[in-house]
């Protein structure tokens, strides 16, 4: 679920403005899952633009406080959401921790880095939601550490049916600044994509696991 339509449109505008959205239908990107994709969203680029990262930070932080009250801790999902998660925590003046995909195999063998106390309220920050599996893996680790996960906020979601199903199954609420449909609207309105590219991007989003460029 997006925060609201205005925020979704503004988020799409700034992501397109800094070329965080990469399009290459003819030579698709390959995701870690093996899926072929004509689009790649790299929200880490946000950190290199102070005005835009401040917009993301403040919008996220204010929404978190409105939706959940001030949490005890903000948790970022490694590695993509460490930077923006820390900025949100700083804005709210609360502690920050981050969650690795799995526990380290050396040293203290932590999966959760930073300090949080059992029973504390945590809001998880993500940069991007695709299937939701890695995000929910972080939630699982936090819950196993006896932390109370209030919900998750992310910059952007591709809006796949499988991600909605995964979040519903785990009973985790997700809110995002932007979403795929609004991104396509903004991209078309600003001539970032053509009608032909819009058709390709819509077809891919409807069935990403089976899509190919041929």
From TrEMBL:
Pathway: Pyrimidine metabolism; UMP biosynthesis via de novo pathway; UMP from orotate: step 1/2. The keyword Transferase applies. Its EC number is 2.4.2.10. Gene3D superfamilies: 3.40.50.2020. Residues 53-149 form the Phosphoribosyltransferase domain. Catalyzes the transfer of a ribosyl phosphate group from 5-phosphoribose 1-diphosphate to orotate, leading to the formation of orotidine monophosphate (OMP). Homodimer. This is Orotate phosphoribosyltransferase. The lineage of its organism: Bacteria, Pseudomonadati, Bacteroidota, Flavobacteriia, Flavobacteriales.
């Amino acid at each position: 679920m997006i925060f609201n339509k205005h925020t979704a449109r503004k988020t799409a505008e700034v992501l397109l403005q800094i070329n965080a959205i990469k399009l290459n239908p003819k030579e698709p990107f390959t995701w870690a899952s093996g899926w072929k994709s004509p689009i790649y969203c790299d929200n880490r680029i946000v950190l290199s633009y102070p005005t835009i990262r401040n917009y993301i930070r403040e919008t996220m932080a204010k929404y978190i406080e409105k939706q959940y009250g001030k949490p005890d801790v903000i948790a970022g999902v490694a590695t993509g959401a460490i930077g923006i998660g820390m900025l949100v925590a700083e804005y709210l003046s609360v502690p920050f921790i981050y969650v690795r995909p799995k526990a380290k195999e050396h040293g203290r063998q932590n999966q959760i880095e930073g300090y949080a106390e059992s029973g504390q309220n945590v809001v998880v920050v993500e940069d991007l939601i695709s299937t939701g599996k890695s995000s929910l893996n972080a939630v699982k680790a936090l819950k196993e550490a006896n932390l109370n996960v209030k919900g998750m906020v992310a910059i952007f979601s591709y809006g796949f049916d499988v991600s909605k199903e995964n979040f519903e199954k785990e009973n985790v609420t997700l809110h995002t600044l932007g979403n795929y449909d609004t991104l396509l609207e903004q991209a078309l309105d600003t001539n970032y994509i053509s009608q032909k590219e819009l058709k390709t991007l819509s077809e891919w989003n409807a069935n990403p696991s089976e899509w190919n460029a041929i």
